[in-house]
Structure formats: structure tokens, C-alpha cells
Design brief:
The protein has an eight-stranded antiparallel beta sheet, with no helix packed on it. It has 158 residues and is mainly β. The protein has no helices and eight strands.
């Protein structure tokens, strides 16, 4: 097992104008991250937990808490599979935002090695968003299928 842990102090100053009224606010608090990874010859399992401040598209600052579980497995010398489970929650650090959001994401994918360094990749992803809103905004979900190529210059198994 390998792991990491970190903590810090965060401070945010922001200005927002909901409904034309200018709101100025600041926020302080702790941020943290911790995680662990276990690697074997054929597989990798990882866990991450983070808490950060992030700007939003509407001028607010959100506190994001995120949990990620990932498992990758070599099926053969050329084929790797993966599954990722993510949960995160965004909450406004002041009360000017009218919605807190919670997301769940499930991703299933595979990489096929074409040459020593080039891979064909495929991924199917489903995301569910739940909103605690005073503005009447509904929950939402989405699905995506992604296909691409990837260059892996260090030639390590993924």
C-alpha cells in the first residue's frame, strides 16, 4: 500500500450580485486530502477523499467534498479494464447560491494496446445529479460513451 495525507488552511474572498444586490463575503476553514493505492502485478486499487474550495460559474465559491474509488486490472498483455466510482457534493460557502448539488458517477472502460506506446480507449459513464434547490431546478442525469487514442510515453502498464 502507498498513501498520502494533507491538510491546510483555506481563505476565500468573493463578490456576487444575485438579483442585482451585491453580496461580499469571505470564508475560512480547513481543507484536506487523503488517499491510498494498492498495486499488484495485474491490478491497481485506489481511494481518495478530498475537501476543497472551488469557484463556480455563477461567481460563488463552493466547498467540494469528493470520494473516488478506482480499480484497474490487466486482462491480458494488451487489454486493461477499469471501473471508477465517484461521489461529490458542492455546497456554497455563503447563502447566496440557491442550490447545493450532489453527484454520483460510475465509469466502465478499457484500454487496448495497439503498439508499444499507443492505446485505443473506450469509456462508458453515467452521472446522476441531485439538487437541493429553492429555485425549482430539477435533478438531472447524463450518459456518455467516449472513444479515443492515448499515447503512454513511459510504457508502464496502466
Amino acid at each position: 500500500w502507498k498513501g498520502y495525507i494533507g491538510a491546510g488552511y483555506r481563505k476565500s474572498n468573493f463578490k456576487n450580485a444575485p438579483g442585482g444586490n451585491i453580496v461580499r463575503d469571505d470564508d475560512t476553514g480547513a481543507s484536506y486530502e487523503l488517499g491510498a493505492t494498492r498495486e499488484s502485478e495485474l491490478s491497481t486499487f485506489s481511494f481518495d477523499l478530498t475537501n476543497t474550495l472551488e469557484p463556480s460559474a455563477d461567481g460563488d465559491v463552493n466547498e467540494r467534498t469528493e470520494v473516488n474509488l478506482a480499480y484497474r486490472r490487466a486482462i491480458s498483455d494488451r487489454l486493461n479494464s477499469q471501473i471508477d466510482l465517484d461521489w461529490f457534493e458542492d455546497e456554497a460557502v455563503n447563502n447566496s447560491l440557491d442550490a447545493d448539488r450532489e453527484y454520483w458517477t460510475v465509469s466502465l472502460g478499457a484500454d487496448y494496446r495497439l503498439t508499444r506506446n499507443w492505446y485505443l480507449t473506450g469509456l462508458a459513464r453515467y452521472r446522476d445529479q441531485e439538487i437541493d434547490s429553492t429555485s425549482g431546478t430539477d435533478d438531472a442525469d447524463s450518459s456518455a460513451v467516449l472513444i479515443g487514442v492515448r499515447y503512454n510515453g513511459d510504457n508502464k502498464r496502466l
